[in-house]
Amino acid sequence: MAEPAKEVAAALDVDLRSASYSDVVITAHDGETPVEFHAHRFILCQRSPIFRAAIEANLPGICT
User: Fold this and answer.
1) Residue 3 resides in a domain
2) Residues facing 34 on adjacent strands
3) Beta carbons of 40 and 16 less than 8 angstroms apart
4) pTM across the whole model
5) Per DSSP, what are the bridge partners of residue 28?
């Protein structure tokens, strides 16, 4: 991989692992304690047909 491509990949990795620019919060429950995961719609839609369908349908409780 060329050096500029490595730099872009490294920058994307940092942003994807942080809550920076996230536009979705997924809340899961571990017993009674809610746990939040910050995510990106684009990535969810690219990686999961389930999330894509939920986001495109603007389902209540999914996209609020």
Assistant:
1) no
2) 29
3) yes
4) 0.67
5) 35
Distances, alpha carbon 1 to alpha carbons 4, 12, 14, in Å: 8, 15, 18
Domain count, the chain: 1
Question: Residue 21: is it exposed, middle or buried by C-beta count within 10 angstroms (0-12/13-18/19+)?
Answer: exposed
Instruction: Tell me the C-alpha to C-alpha distance, in Å, between residue 48 and each of 22, 42, 54.
Output: 17, 10, 10
Record the tokens describing residue 14, joined without a space: 């940092």
Q: Domain of 26?
A: 22-64
Residue 7 domain-assigned? no
d(CA 40, CA 16): 8
The pLDDT profile of the chain, 64 residues, written as one tens digit per residue, is 558 889 998 888 888 788 888 888 888 887 888 888 888 888 899 999 999 998 888 877 665 5
Residue 8 forms part of a structural domain: no
